[in-house]
Specification:
heterodimer; A: mainly alpha; B: mainly alpha; 11 helices
């Protein structure tokens, strides 16, 4: 735990986020038409990045040694199946997390 | 009429309050688990104010990621906010408290304000600041719970995975084009296998952007 580096990380995230949020207001005025590639990436990038983040979250799961990532698999399936049927993000997250905590703590 | 406006804004933001409190608590607990107290939780929620990014931030902080990695990750994870801004250009023209309103554009605030017909600047402001405060309070509560109440929190980090799985499933169900999601997943898995968990993030993001640009041209030829 290095507090100095942590503060730098937090400030970096904050500045980049502010930059992103202010960018359109500084660069474009409402008459101007957007470059097509920007609109395109705006449509497809979020989906791809969210899928990437799922993998990022699971990056340290060891699939070659027991229990072969089975706990994670079960919990991910709980979230996914529940979400398909109920479409309630908070419910999916809460149940999936409780399920995973039980799996980790009991077995 | 100010009280009436605040009341209207409050009612409108109730669903966001539920979401932000729960997600905020999750974030706060996670942050406490890697050893950071309420001051950090509040600081992050005040100056970053981005749900998914703060979850990712916990893991970036925990692994003491380089600032380059942090900047690029933020750019890609929060990049979508740029498009929210674009569609608010007109609405936020010549408006008071404009810098704060722009700073406060999150997924949820945007979703409340983008269809809003009213021209009432105060209403925009109250909605934005109410949502921001729910998020800060959620993070603080979660962090205090994690710091003060001893409980076996093993496995609670899965809330972050669950959040993104739910988002991906939701997007999968609401869009016809699944290629971007498959590209994101495929690039990440391949880079992870080839490069290992420490170094796969930036190459993955580069690969995703390049592949998406490539299939865009191909899609055009096919039309």
């Amino acid at each position: 735990m290095n507090n100095y580096h942590t503060i730098l990380i937090i400030i970096t995230i904050s500045l980049v986020t502010i930059l992103i949020r202010f960018f359109p207001f500084v660069v474009f005025n409402k008459q101007e038409k957007l470059p097509e590639i920007i609109t395109y990436l705006g449509n497809v990038l979020p989906t791809a990045i969210m899928a990437m983040l799922v993998v990022y979250c699971l990056k340290d799961v060891k699939v070659t040694v027991f229990p072969y990532g089975l706990k994670e698999l079960v919990a991910v399936l709980v979230v996914a199946v529940l979400h398909v049927y109920k479409r309630n993000t908070l419910l999916s997250i809460t149940c999936g997390t409780i399920c995973y905590m039980l799996l980790v703590q009991l077995f | 009429m100010k009280k009436e406006t605040i009341k209207q804004a409050f009612i409108k933001t109730l669903p966001v309050m539920a979401g932000y409190l729960v997600l905020g608590i999750g974030f706060g607990v996670l942050l406490s688990k890697i050893g950071y107290g309420p001051l950090y939780a509040v600081l992050m929620s005040v100056i970053i104010y981005g749900g998914s990014m703060q979850y990712v931030a916990v893991s970036l902080i925990d692994s003491a990621a380089s600032l380059i990695t942090v900047a690029i990750t933020t750019l890609l994870v929060n990049g979508r906010h740029l498009f929210y801004g674009l569609s608010m250009l007109e609405k936020y023209q010549n408006i008071k408290r404009k810098p704060y309103l722009i700073f406060g554009i999150t997924d949820e605030t945007y979703s409340l304000l983008c269809q809003e017909e009213s021209k009432d600047e105060d209403y925009y402001f109250y909605i934005t600041i109410l949502n921001h405060s729910y998020w800060i309070i959620g993070g603080l509560i979660g962090n205090l719970i994690g710091t003060l109440i001893p409980f076996n929190s093993a496995g609670i980090e899965f809330s972050m995975t669950a959040l993104f799985v739910a988002i991906v499933v939701e997007q999968w169900l609401t869009t016809k084009d699944h290629v971007p999601a498959i590209i994101g997943f495929g690039c990440a898995v391949n880079c992870l296998i080839i490069l290992g968990p420490e170094h796969f993030l930036i190459p993955t993001m580069i690969a995703i952007v390049l592949l998406l640009i490539m299939i865009r041209k191909r899609g055009k030829l096919n039309e």
